[in-house]
């Protein structure tokens, strides 16, 4: 698999050098991937706005000796309205953190990609943020096989933290959301 491509949601982006970024995406066909985006921080880069966190993209990458390098990116949806509301952004970060921590690298889960995209769309237009957050937690736990379908869980945050064996950084924000 030298060159490959898929649809993906950008989960995180970190500066790597003066012009490069390392991005983590969750793709439909390959699961969670870490990719190098060379030259993306340059002012004239065509990929610059396409690799923002939460963007739903179609990408192509080339696998060489090290980390795969993004060669082409096309935006499917960048959820502009979601980015205008700080509380919605915090819930979107929660979604991204949960997906990143509960899945392994290069483990295909097309249904999690679909779940993430659907919840980002619902979040963009939705108003019941706490309900969306709870439903997302339960659905991802069901898909990954941590709980039986339809089981009631009194505290989804505690359940997720016990699954990943760490505290979630975005949990604090969820406690301040309105029902």
UniProtKB/TrEMBL annotation:
Organism of derivation: Candidatus Woesebacteria bacterium RIFCSPHIGHO2_01_FULL_44_21
Q: Which InterPro entries match?
A: ARFGAP/RecO, DNA_rep/recomb_RecO_N, NA-bd_OB-fold, RecO, RecO_C
- Protein name as catalogued: DNA repair protein RecO
Say if the entry is tagged with keyword Ubl conjugation: no
Q: Name one GO biological process term.
A: DNA recombination
UniProt cross-references to SUPFAM superfamilies, sorted A to Z: ArfGap/RecO-like zinc finger (SSF57863), Nucleic acid-binding proteins (SSF50249)
Look up the domain of life of the source.
Answer: Bacteria
The entry's cellular-component GO terms read: bacterial nucleoid
Residues annotated as domain DNA replication/recombination mediator RecO N-terminal: 1-79
Matching Pfam families: RecO_C, RecO_N
Family affiliation: Belongs to the RecO family.
Q: By which gene is this protein encoded?
A: recO
What is the stated purpose of this protein? Answer: Involved in DNA repair and RecF pathway recombination.
Q: Which UniProt keywords apply?
A: DNA damage, DNA recombination, DNA repair
Q: Matching HAMAP family, A to Z?
A: RecO
